[in-house]
Design brief:
By secondary structure, the protein is mainly beta. Helix content is 0%, strand content 50%. It is built from no helices and 10 strands. It has strands at residues 2-6, 17-24, 34-40, 47-53, 58-60, 68-73, 78-83, 92-100, 103-107, 111-113. Strands 3, 4, 5, 8, 9 and 10 form a 6-stranded antiparallel beta sheet that branches. The protein is globular, with a radius of gyration of 13 Å. The N and C termini lie far apart (36 Å). The relative contact order is 0.31. The mean pLDDT is 96.
Length: 117
């Protein structure tokens, strides 16, 4: 399976960050696969943001839940992230990834999103 993130690299203050992950080589509705967004701010560790399950169930990081929405487009085999009210602290490399068998076993290459300065 291959994952590819897409979306704008710059987001202005208070705007909504929108990213899409296109998945090839496997369906996002296949059982027991969970599709996630993870980010890594400069000089910091990985931070899990949200997950959408093969069933469509969604899960959010408590610290970001109020600003985050994850959704999917099964016809195009994509899932998306929206993060509202962006601040400089949202600057990070954003990854989409697949979770299966207790680990993230497939990752996109990541996309740098720069928030307001």
């Amino acid at each position: 399976v291959q994952l590819q993130e897409s979306g704008p690299g710059l987001v202005k203050s208070s705007q909504t960050l929108s990213l899409t992950c296109s998945v090839s080589g496997g369906s996002i509705t296949t059982g027991n696969y969970y599709w996630s967004w993870i980010r890594q701010p400069p000089g910091k560790g990985l931070e899990w943001i949200a997950t959408i399950a093969y069933s469509g169930s969604t899960y959010y990081s408590p610290s970001l839940k109020s600003r985050t929405s994850i959704s999917r487009d099964t016809s195009n085999n994509q899932f998306s992230l929206q993060l509202s009210s962006v601040t400089p602290e949202d600057t990070a490399v954003y990854y989409c990834a697949r979770y299966s068998n207790s680990c993230f076993d497939a990752w996109g290459q990541g996309t740098l999103v720069t928030g307001p300065s």
